[in-house]
Amino acid sequence: MRIGELAKALGTTTKTLRHYEQKGLLRPSHRTDNGYREYGEQEVNHARKVMGLRQLGLSIQEVHDLLAGDPAGTTLRMRLLGLFDEKLRDFDERLGILQGRREDLETRYLSMLDTPPDQDGSCICAALLIPCQCAKSDKRPTKISPS
């Protein structure tokens, strides 16, 4: 199979495959006399793994490290499970941080909604969660309703 056929079979471009070859993720089984890349069944299966792992969001380096093998003899499946476990823990940590930030922002938003209507329009003490020392205003500001 030539590179164009492989790209079509994998739903990608020849440019992507050449880039992966340059990065050490792929290699053709051989080149013809006129320089065309040809891929055998083993290389096609390897390319499918590379593309599948990339579609999972793994970086080129992560894919390279996974497929390079392990001198300790750990299987590809075990290495991938380990990477997934690491990524899940990282996502959970980031989600926890984001959830905390969201809750903090919501608290500040709700505090601002509770600001008395006669409060000075430039007062943001409620958002800063500090005691208000701002003067009352003679103007009645337009209250923003929550969405």
Note the topology.
Elements (H helix, E strand, L loop, with lengths): L2 H8 L3 H9 L7 E2 L5 E2 L2 H15 L4 H8 L8 H38 L11 H4 L19
Antiparallel strand pairs: 1-2
Short summary:
The chain is mainly alpha-helical and 147 residues long. The chain is 56% helix and 3% strand.
What can you tell me about this protein's structure?
- This protein has a domain at 3-100: Multidrug-efflux Transporter Regulator, Chain: A, Domain 2 (Orthogonal Bundle), CATH 1.10.1660.10.
- Helix content is 56%, strand content 3%.
- It contains six helices and two strands.
- It has helices spanning 3-10, 14-22, 41-55, 60-67, 76-113, 125-128; strands at 30-31, 37-38.
- It has a two-stranded antiparallel sheet with strand order 1-2.
- It is elongated.
- The mean pLDDT is 91.
